[in-house]
Design a protein that fits this description.
4 copies of one chain form a homotetramer. Chain A is of the alpha/beta class. Chain A is built from 10 helices and 20 strands.
C-alpha cells in the first residue's frame, strides 16, 4: 500500500509503497484512512529539524502522520463497518499509573510512543489495524472538520488541567461561571484559534494577541466567537488590566513569556503550550518574588488522550451550530495524497488547517 | 399586559391582564417573552396540588412559568437588542456562601425563591425586567429547542455532581473515559430522555427503564443516542450486572428505590431526582449493611444554576448535530398563549415537551 | 507456634499450636506479634454469628485477629530490627483500579480478603511474615495506644471521604475552617469516641448521642475533647438546629436512621458506618422529596487502607499531647494471650478497648 | 504600654511607650502578649530594606511583630480567661471571594494588610484587642514551641496546595500514600527544617540541600525525621534521580532555580516560597520545551490562613511525640523584650528560632 514516509533527522518525504508486514499495526480493527491533517510538527520532521523524531526500532524510516480520520472496514465489538473514527496518537508506556489509567499525557517514564513522530508508525497510509481502545468515534455531521479534533484534544486537556489546578482557589465568579475571568491567548494560528474557541465555550473573556494586524479571516472568526484581537507588535502595555489565564499558543521566542508574566493577575495561570524554537528568557529576583506573592501557577501542557478526543468531537459539534462561519473557515485547503509532499514542505499564507485526502 | 396567573393551593389558571406595576421585576434588562415551556410542576400548581407553591408576599396570586425564552428589547451591557435569552429560574437567598457564589442550587438557608413556583412571579407574561446576571444567551441555531435548557440545566448540575462526588474513588476506566461505567435511568419521560442524552454525552453506557414497552418515538430516540431500553414491568432481575449510576428520573412511588438499590455496584451512586408523589419505602438491616460495605453514595439532586444553563445550551447545540432525529422529536407541540390553560390542565399521550408561543 | 483459632460459623475459640507451614504468610518481613486488639467483629465471629466470616480455602479454621502490633525480627528494606509495626488488615483483589492504586477500601470486585475475618489468616499468633507494603510504622511514644490505629484507620477514611464529597458545595466557613459545621455522632462506644476526636481535630462542632446518661469516663472524655453529650432516649427533638454531618457509629437498629434523617441540614451528609444487626427502616415519599430538595448525601463507609493507618498514627500522636486524659482512658484492659478466649467471649461494662499481650 | 516600634524604610527599632488609643486594635477580645517570634522579615524591616513595609495610614511608625502568642484576659464567646492563643497575621481585603471565604492567602485585590509588616500594627506590644475569628487556640502541651505555628502555617498552606494541584495527575503510590515521591528542599534554615518535617509527615521521601556541610544540630534533626542531607556546594548532579517536588525554602539567588529545574520529574512541582534578594535567572528554549513535555507545575506560594494555623498546631503536637529531640532543638534562644532590639539587629550562628518573652 501507499504510505507517506520520512527518515527522521534527514530532510525529505516521499509517497511510496510499503508492505503491510513491514509497517507497525496495533490491534485488530482494520481502519482505512480517509484523511490526514498536517501540522507544524509534520513539517519540522520533513525538514529534518525535529530532534525528538525517531523511527521504530530496527529501521531508519517512519510512516508520518498523527492526525487522521479513517473508516472501519470490518465489524469489531462496538464498531460497525463504515463507522468513521480517529485514532489517539500517543500510546502509553504500559508501566506507570498515569498510563495504566489511560492518561499517557502524564506518562511518568517518558517511554510513551507517538504515531508518526517517535518510535511508532503514523497514520499517513492506506490502512492499518488498531486496538478499539485507541479509536474515537466521529459523529456524523462533523466529518468535514473532525480532523481538527486531534489538535483540539491537546487543548481540551490543557484547559481542563488549568481549570482543575485552579480548584486551589475560589475561581468561579458570582454567577457560578468563569464569565469574570480574563484570558490572554498568545498567537492566532490554528492553536490560538482553537484554544480561544474552547475558552469562550467555558465562558472566559478572551483576548488573542499577535504581533501584527489580524487577517480578514481572523477578524471574522474572533468577531463570531466573541474574542477580542490585540496587536502586540509594540508590547502588551496598552492591554488594560491583568489576566487570570495567559496561554502561550505561539512559537514565539521565550522572551514573549518574559514580557507577559507581569500581566498575570493574582492567582493567575500561565499555560506553556507552544514550543519556542530558539532563544532564552530572563526572570529577575523581583519577578520571582511577585510570582510567590501573587500565588501564580505556571503549567507545562502537552498532549490529549481519549477523553480529550471525545470532548473535542463534542465541541466541534457544538461549534458547527453556534459558530458556523468560523467552523467553515478552519479547513483552508484539501489536497490529494500525491500532493502531500508539496504541502508538507511549504506553508501557505492564511493557512489554518490543510488536509490530505486519500 | 397579558399574564398566565394561578392562585397557589387553589385549582385553576387564567390568562388575564396584569399591570406592570403590580407584578414583580428583577432588574433593568427588558425581556419580551417569546416562549414558555410547560412541565409537571406547572400542572401540579394548576391542579392546586403543589403544597410548596406560594404567591409573592401580600397577594394570593402568582404569575406562573419557570421555563422561558425571551428577546432583549433595549441594549444593556453585553446584551444587544434581539438577543434571545433564557432566565435562570431559582434566585438565591443572598446570605449563604453557596448563594453568594452563584450556586443557589445548594442554598443553605432555604430562603431562595423560584419563578412561577414560590415567592416570585414567573415568566408567563408578555414582558418583564431582569438582572443580566440571571440571563443566559441562547445561541442562534438552537432557538427551536432552547426551551429544553431549563429542565436540562437541572440535569447538568445533577450529572456534574455525581461525577464530582465520584472523585472519591478511581472511577474513570482504563481509556480515561467513563465508557466502562453503566448507568440505569428510571423513567423515560422528558427528564429520563434528557438525562440519558447527557450521560451518553459523558460516555456512560445507558439503560433506560420504564414499566411498559417503549413507544415508537422512544425506540427511535434511544437507538439514535445509543441507549438500551428495558421494560421493568416485571422488576429488574433480568437486567444483568450491576450499575455504577442509578438515576431516578421518574415519579414512581418510593418502592422503586427499594427495588433498585440491590442493583447498585460497588462504589455506585444513586441519584434521587424524581419526586415520588405518595407511598413509602423500606430498607432492611442487611441492605443498610451492604450500602456500607459497597461504599455506595446516595445523592439528593435538584436545581441547576447559571453554569448549568450555559452547559445545557452547549449540549443542545452539540446534540442538534450528533442526534438530529432525536432533537427533532423533543418538542411535541406548540400552542398559542390563549390555549395555555387547556394544555396546562391536560397532558397528551406521547407528549415530551409542549411550549406556549406568545 | 501458638495461635488463636476459630471455626467460622461455629461458636468457639481456642489458643492452640499451629505449624508455620499450615498457616498463611504474605511476604518476607518476619513480624513477631506483641499485641492484638479485640473488637465487636472478633466477638461476633467467636459467637458464630458473623455470616461473612470465612476460613482460607481448603480448611475449616481461621487464625483470628485484624488488630495487631508487632516487632520486625529481621532487617528488611526500610525496616530495622525492633521497629514496631501494624499490619493493614484488608488486602486488595489485585484486579480493579482501586486495589491497584492501594485503595482496597473501594475494591470493585468484592474479591478482597480480610485478615482474621474472611479468606485470610489473622494476626493472633506468635509471628508471621508480611509484605512491607502492608506494614505501617508505629512512632515511639504512642506504642501504648497504637493498637487503636486499626479501628481509627476506618474512621480516617470515612471522615476524609465525607470532606472530599462535600467539595461538591461551598462547605468551609468564613474563617476557612469547618468551625461552623455541626456533626452528630450516633453512639458513644469506641467508634463513637474515636470519630468524635477525629471530627474535633478537623474543627467540627460535635454532639455525641446515646440512649442513656453518659458514664463518668465518657463525661471526662467529651469534656476534654470539647464535644457535647446528648441523651437520645427520648429522641432527638430537643437537639436544636440541624446537622451538617450525621455519623452512625452505633449498632442501633435501622430505625435510628429513620429518626435522624430529618435532622440533616441542607447539603448535609449522613455517614453509614455502624452495622445494624436486625430490623428495618422506612422512608416516606415526603422524606425522599426532602432529601432531593435539601441536596443531601448518604455515604456507605467502610475500611481504611495504608494512608489512613498512617494518618491514624499521626492523630494518636497529636492526641497524646492535646488530650492526654482521654488517650489514657482508651485502653481499658490488657490481658495475657491465655485469657484471650475469655475476653473474646464477654464484653465488660465500661470497656473501650481491650488488648491481648503476647 | 510598651511596644516594639519601627519606621518603615528607615533603619532602626526601639522599645517605647505607646498609648492604647494611638495603636490599632481589631476586635473585642483582649489578648495579653506573652511571646513574639523573630524572623528574617522582621530583621529586614529593622534594617530598612523591606520596600513593601508600610505604616498604618496617617503616621510614619508601625508596631512590629507578626509571630505572637498571647493569653486571653477577659472571657469572650468560646474563649476563656487564660486560654493561650495565636493571631492570624494577614487579614483579608473584605472584597474578593477568596478573602470572604477566609482565604486571604489568595486575596485577589492585593488590598490585604499584614500585622507588623504592612498597613497594620503588629503584635510586639503588651496587649491588644482582636476579633475571635483571627485567634487560634494553642493546645496545652505545646506552648513552648507554639510560636513556630506562624511560619509553619505558611508551609501547611504550601504543601496542601502542592498536593491539591497534583490531583491533576495520578500521584499517590501503589500503597495509596506518597511514599514513592521524592522531595528536594532547597535550604536548611528554619523554613527548610519545618517544611521537611511537614513533607515527612505526609510520607514523602525528603532530601534537604544546602551549599555547605550540615551543622551538628541539622545532622541530628534530619536523622530523627528521616530526611537526607545533601551538600550542594558543587551543584546537584551527584543527586541521583529526579524529584517530584522541589521546594525553594532558601533566599539563594534566582540561579538556584535555574540549576534545579532540570531535576524535576515528569509531572513534578516546583514550589517558589523563598525570596531571592537579588540577581536573575535564565531559561533556554529547550528548558521551556521540557517544562511542557514533562507536564511540570511551578507554583508561587505565600501565606497561611486560619485553617493552616490550626493544622500547624496539630503537627507541632504530633511532632512533640514523634520527633522529641527535634522539637527540643527548634527554639534556640529566648530573650527578654528589652533585649529585642539587639536580637532584631543581629542573627546568631546556629539560630533556628529566637523568641522574645514579655
Amino acid at each position: 500500500m501507499k504510505a507517506i514516509v520520512v527518515k527522521p533527522s534527514s530532510k525529505g518525504v516521499e509517497v511510496r509503497d510499503v508492505n503491510e508486514k513491514e509497517v507497525q499495526n496495533f490491534g485488530r480493527v482494520k481502519v482505512r484512512i480517509i484523511e490526514n491533517g498536517i501540522c507544524g510538527t509534520d513539517r519540522e520532521i520533513v525538514q529534518g529539524k525535529m530532534t525528538s523524531a525517531r523511527a521504530p526500532q530496527g529501521r531508519d524510516w517512519l510512516v508520518l502522520g498523527h492526525e487522521a480520520l479513517g473508516v472501519v472496514e470490518e465489524p469489531f465489538g462496538e464498531f460497525k463497518v463504515n463507522d468513521v473514527v480517529m485514532p489517539v496518537n500517543r500510546r502509553g508506556c504500559g508501566k506507570c499509573n498515569n498510563c495504566l489509567m489511560g492518561r499517557a499525557d502524564h506518562c511518568e517514564t517518558g517511554e510513551f510512543v507517538e504515531a508518526g513522530i517517535s518510535d511508532m508508525d503514523g497514520f499517513m497510509r492506506e490502512y492499518y489495524y488498531d486496538d478499539p481502545k485507541y479509536l474515537v468515534k466521529v459523529p456524523k455531521g462533523i466529518e468535514d472538520i473532525a480532523i481538527l479534533a486531534q489538535p483540539l484534544s491537546d487543548l481540551e486537556k490543557s484547559v481542563n488541567e488549568i481549570i482543575k489546578v485552579q480548584e486551589r482557589v475560589y475561581w468561579t465568579c458570582n454567577d457560578g461561571t468563569f464569565s469574570c475571568r480574563r484570558a490572554l491567548v498568545i498567537g492566532s494560528g490554528p492553536i490560538g484559534i482553537l484554544v480561544s474557541m474552547l475558552l469562550r465555550s467555558h465562558s472566559f473573556q478572551v483576548i488573542v494577541a499577535n504581533r501584527r494586524e489580524p487577517t480578514e479571516i481572523e477578524d471574522q472568526i474572533f468577531q463570531e466567537i466573541g474574542a477580542e484581537y490585540f496587536n502586540s507588535a509594540k508590547g502588551y502595555t496598552e492591554l488594560k488590566g491583568r489576566f487570570d489565564v495567559i496561554f502561550n499558543a505561539s512559537t514565539a521566542p521565550p522572551t514573549v513569556i518574559e514580557d507577559i508574566i507581569p500581566f498575570l493577575n493574582y492567582n493567575g495561570v500561565l499555560g506553556l503550550f507552544g514550543f519556542p524554537p530558539s532563544g532564552e528568557m530572563k526572570l529577575s529576583f523581583q519577578e520571582i518574588q511577585r510570582l510567590s506573592l501573587k500565588g501564580v501557577a505556571i503549567l507545562g501542557l502537552a498532549n490529549g488522550q481519549k477523553p480529550h478526543f471525545e470532548e473535542a468531537m463534542r465541541h466541534l459539534s457544538q461549534w458547527k451550530i453556534t459558530w458556523p462561519k468560523t467552523t467553515n473557515k478552519l479547513i483552508t485547503r484539501t489536497v490529494h495524497v500525491d500532493e502531500a509532499p508539496k504541502v508538507l514542505s511549504f506553508k501557505e499564507e492564511n493557512e489554518i488547517k490543510v488536509k490530505i485526502r486519500w
